[in-house]
Write a structure and sequence with these properties.
alpha+beta; about 625 residues; Rossmann fold; about 15% strand; 20 helices; Calcium-transporting ATPase, cytoplasmic transduction domain A; 22 strands; 6-stranded antiparallel β-sheet; 4 domains
Length: about 625
Amino acid sequence: MTKKQKKMLKKILTAAAVFAVACIFSYLLPKFPFQQWISLVIFLIAYIIASGDVIRKAILGIKNGQVFDENFLMSLATIGAFFVGEYPEGVLVMVLYQIGELFQAYAVGKSRKSISSLMQIRPDSANLLKDGDITEVSPEKVAVGEYILVKPGEKIPLDGIITDGTSSLDTAALTGESLPREVTSGDFAISGCINLRGTLTIQVTKAFGESTVSKILDMVENASARKAKAENFISKFARYYTPVVVILAVLLAFVPPLILDGGFSDWIYRSLNFLVVSCPCALVISIPLGFFGGIGGAAKQGILMKGSNYLETLSDTDAFVFDKTGTLTKGNFKVTKLVPMEISETELLQVTALAESHSSHPIAVSIVEEYKNVCSFLNDASSTTLVSDVEELAGFGVRAVVEEKEVFAGNLRLMKEKNITVPENYTELTVGTAVYVAVNGKFAGTVCVEDELKPDSASAIAELKKSGIQKLVMLTGDKKAAGEAIANTLGLSDVHTELLPADKVTHLEALLEQQSAGHSLAYVGDGINDAPVLARADIGIAMGGLGSDAAIEAADIVIMTDEPSKLPAAIRIAKGTMRIVRQNIVFALGIKVLVLILSALGYSNMWWAIFADVGVCVLAVLNSMRALRLK
């Protein structure tokens, strides 16, 4: 319990104690001298203790032009109760209202705690290693290419490559994983993780503003700004609902007694009940809290949602479209076959590896690694002088000059683009990915590489089907045989292969046109070429652990563990949160409307009004807190 909540509790207990003394004077000591006046004074003291901040907020609201809020309604109703002689009810309504506020503050604090745990990943400083000296500086002041030292127990402040040291990293705040991740020299270190044991030297690859920790903090801090339709509806509803109720309460207090000749006290009492019931705080507080709980519950499991509107959209999703490499597969390619033409296998591997040596694409990295395994040539830094004029051809492959020979390495489209003839038997060699190589305009052979499915891809697809999602499509740049093999293994409903980034957007737009009203389509990807598709989909989901910055930036939801199995979990959390939100709306409105009618007809008293306001609000808030525990 926070200091503010403890102060609030102390005020409630003091007001309740004074109220108890007032009740003793009022009901148990009727013959005490000046009993009625003493009782009134003590009731007033109890009321002032309980209502001080509520009345102050009501006055400030009137000054700022925000008249019709719950503070105004509660103040008007309870002061009115004193004027009609209902002192105990006036005090008790305010005490119970404050108890409700305390419950709400506690619930909101608990909900925010799930998000604030993420905020603890913010690094305080970085140990800059320069010329053998270590200087503690702000992470913002460390440049790309510089080295930092991370000691045991410290947070990794910036993304980078480990150049020295072996350790275990606690990634729980980022991914929700309880098991530490073992790292060593050459591994990538993500900012926000905690170094558990060994000292690490890291070469910084991203400035602080572009680092993982910075992007996550930005997502978390801005999540509440993107409101769901249900939240916007409740905000608009409260703006119109409250003034209408106040006008009805005034009419209820004065019109019937004028028509029926008298009885003002009874009708004013009814109107006061009407005002207490009408407070919309149950909806105004519990609905955003439900969404906040859902976002916090998802964050605990390594699923970052950039706003409650995306959570709401995800709950209506009935179609998923996937990228292949790095999303459903590991992206760890391995060379499985070399098919040269008029040159040796070693020569084919060498020329391809040198041409690809400047690329960071997973396929290129796998070819370079394979060549390193069979020849130490590329381990020599001087080998880079053999390669010049390197040009990455997006969606096609690479062009480079290797030992004064022009080399093209890429897909079949690249060969066709350069008018290089590929024998038919070289295009049907493997279900994996084929890299076609040409030297000085002549076809030189094929390097076959294969990707491995992620261990949880099949179970993720099966779980999505169980949740009612039957449209599961894959869009990939791989050749037909490779794409169809993966799709058949996973049981996807459709697959489109050999696509350029622009082709993916075209296919996605066609799928969006097929969507029925009220349903959404999600796209899941991880690469730079997925960014346009992620932005175009109803809901874009990026694999954040290894995904590109562009993909994470364009996405609405980020899976920090790179596990497809988090997708069914995200769906369950989204649907569970929306179920809780709808329960709160129906329950709160239903009870309020019922008690409002009973109050107008004179069949309910202020105790019923208290339940319809404070009681409903507390129950709705407690129901919203269940969103934190959704699995």
